[in-house]
Amino acid sequence: MAEIDLQLHHLGDGLDQIRIVGRLDSAGAQALEQPLKAMIAAAPARVLIDLSQVPFLGSMGIRSLLTSAQAMRRRGGALGLLNPQSLVDEVLKMTGIQTLIPTFHDVEAARSALAEHVGGP
After folding, report:
1. Reported pTM
2. Which of 92, 18, 94, 33 is nearest to 57 (CA)?
3. Which pLDDT belongs to residue 1?
4. Rounded distance, CA 109 to CA 21, Å?
5. 10 Å Cβ neighbour count for 1?
6. Which among 46, 42, 43, 52 has a CA at the least distance from the CA of 111?
């Protein structure tokens, strides 16, 4: 089983940050799936997934992020990605994921941008 760690931080004002530590390859995404699903289900209306400690993002990791974003939207919430490393940022750009899940490099910018999406379509 892959080494993957999730760290939950409550930032206040209905915003949680989930920091992922480890590679989001197929094994990492599989190890991440259930704990992340549980954190998203219990989260407030806005969630930031911190990718600063993720050196690799593969197709299964992308699937996990998309599934989490869809779960948040179904509840009327919003999800964003925070501080992806340069390789991960390139993958997000090449796959077009950033058109579906916004990416931020600053918590305060994310806080206000995600607030606009809460309760929306």
Report:
1. 0.92
2. 92
3. 54
4. 22
5. 7
6. 46
